[in-house]
Amino acid sequence: MTGTVVVTGVGVTSPTGLGAADHWTATCQGRAAIDRVTRFDPERYPARLAGEVRGFVAEEHLPSRLIPQTDRMTRLALVAADWALADAGVSRGDLNEFDIGVVTASSSGGFEFGEGELRNLWSKGGQYVSAYQSYAWFYAVNTGQISIRHGLRGPSGVLVSDQAGGLDAIAQARRKIRKGAKLIVSGGVDASLCSWGWAALLTSGRLSVADDPDRAYLPFDARASGHVPGEGGALLILEDAASARERGVSGWYGEIAGYGATFDPRPGSDREPGLRNAVRLALRDARADPGEIDVVFADAAATPELDRAEAEAIAAVLGPRAVPVTAPKTMTGRLNSGAGPLDLVTALLAIRDGLVPPTANVAPDPGYPIDLVVGAPRRRAVRAALVLARGQGGFNSAVVVRAPEPGHARPPAVPAELADPP
Where is the Ketosynthase family 3 (KS3) domain (predicted)? Predict the structure, then answer.
């Protein structure tokens, strides 16, 4: 194994689009997908907005036998995995089944499925609770169902570290490949937009209670008052570069070049938040200087204290306003474990097309020492991107992705609406 781990395929199920192409077009255009919740009646709750994956009909993509045994989260993940494997050109028999694994992240498990079975228990009795409840709610169910569907028997697992988990899963997948696996399906997809899941999300105290979708999720803005939740995420196909070449892959999206993770210190300890050191660790792992980073995809918590900590971490390591910063999750909401992988896909598409997507609806507070991209996408050659994620409880993760070597890049595919006129 070369130690170089590359991304050969991506699959996206996001509020901004089903499939990477639709997501990328909507993101570059700044088309936000946040609106009033429709998956349950939110009227009695203080927060009523979310980023929903609209237009997703599981029966159009999955066999009927899977529908009664899966939560919405798992259905979205299964479809994302199908698309990622197809994008990478992977078919059964291409590799030994024991050389291919699945490493995903989850923040909540199958909340909606569990809520339905609890309703059956309370209203009808235990005999009406589905046997599938035993695993449909579980954090590891996406890993299990993807591996079963595609016959993947290699090293696998699940990471649970809230919003940081998706990046942690990618890092674990890279470790598995460096230890001998040839290909890992990795990333995260979450979906807990049900009344039970909503009650859990509200306990964070960080949800925006604004009713105007354009004013609800405003990181690095003086009007910031919390975030909007969302559902969905992305799965990526990670491969050893040499193995990918042997498989006949001629082009890929980029390299997972560096990773760093830390925990925040105990509240009240007066020690600096851990994000700054996570960035340093990721750069060191990638053997990259701060000046090599061309764009930062921010965690974007949208509370003044957390936004300040993130902006200062970026400025301290990369320099004040030294590099463009973007937070396209203002269009989707925060997707829990799906957020980091979706940002990674978006970063890889930014590398491919030389385009930094905007942060929607935000008027940057000049008090933050960062160069936030707003309004319209910014054309810029992107060779390396830094993706950040933080989970409640003190998790911090950072990943550096780097452009492919010459001759191995995917061809650009800038959305037609943004292409230069002939």
Answer: 2-403
